[in-house]
Amino acid sequence: MGVIEPSLATRRVLAFCEAATEADLHAVVFEACAKVDYRAGPICQFRVVTMQQQQFFLSVVHHLTFDLISSTILMGDVVSLLRNKPLPPKSLSYVAWSDTLYTMAQDLDVSTIALPTPSLPLPLDYPHVPLNRSKEYEAKEILTIDGDLLHRFNAYTQQHTVTAVDLLMTALLLACNQHFNMPSITLLFESNGHSPPGQSCDVSRTLGWCVSHSYLSLTKQPNESPKATLERTHSTLRNLPVNGFNLFLAKHLKMFTDPSEQVQLNVRPEMAFSYSDDQVLETANSASPIALRHDLLMPIMSQLLPNAHPYSLVVSCLHGVDKLEIYFTYHTNQFSPSTIQLLALALKQVLVGLVG
């Protein structure tokens, strides 16, 4: 099946409006949600809302083609831009808005990461095979990080105030996006989280396929950093946890408006990975800002995967004093050992590139 590429050039996605109450603000959000169409475009809507002498920048995104990571990067850059420069004075097409943001973003302190040259596409060895939960089909691959690389890994987490699990998740996402083609695969990353090395706790986070309508609301404040804005609006952005993972990505990765082909590929459906934590998943059906649309999810998944059997790969780690062990637990009726070995090698290469 070909990639779904909505026509975006003629779509007007940025609008300016006023709201008297918070209910009016929500009405603006829902109106924008109604216009998001993953087939025909646009895949995102922007609204600048003036309410009670404050400006809110609202972004409504479709997670089939636009993931939370890209949204995080966009929000951080937009906040930085708003500190120093006004938004364009009129509504723009998606392409024009993207070009404008990219031009303005040249002044931002955003760096890129030089990754190793991709080896070859990751084969999905047995497409659409139902997942057999039997233990006889379960296998593990272990990647051990020790010695000088572990020392650099630990030093990097301390220098950049990012947890080990956040750095590993970032590397895993980059490895999947840069090295392999992994459509509709759910990566459940379980780790010791914020515990001291050698201890374990019940912490898990998910990188995976998600279809939802959500909105992010950021209020412009003078001389405020993106990090401070995210922290201040954390209660509103329940679908965007304020942690080292998001802040690390916002700092080190180019925003989705980078015109290079490789970055543009990352927002296509087969490369769409969303980030959530357990709390979001548990409250997905509540009245929180993010609401998973299960009525949309299953038909879309059935279309993308004819037999509707997503791939399963569990990545867990034990962060000890003298070594970091990363476990890849997979099912042999879905993946071959060589496939997982390639993924482990790619993850190690990305880690080397990240920590220097």
TrEMBL record:
SUPFAM superfamilies: CoA-dependent acyltransferases. Gene3D superfamilies: Chloramphenicol acetyltransferase-like domain, Nonribosomal peptide synthetase, condensation domain. Pfam families: Condensation. One of its GO terms (cellular component) is cytoplasm. It comes from the Eukaryota. One of its GO terms (molecular function) is phosphopantetheine binding. Residues 35-351 form the Condensation domain. Coiled coil: none annotated. GO terms for biological process: amino acid activation for nonribosomal peptide biosynthetic process; secondary metabolite biosynthetic process. InterPro entries: CAT-like_dom_sf (IPR023213), Condensation_dom (IPR001242). This is Condensation domain-containing protein. It comes from Dimargaris verticillata. The lineage of its organism: Eukaryota, Fungi, Fungi incertae sedis, Zoopagomycota, Kickxellomycotina.
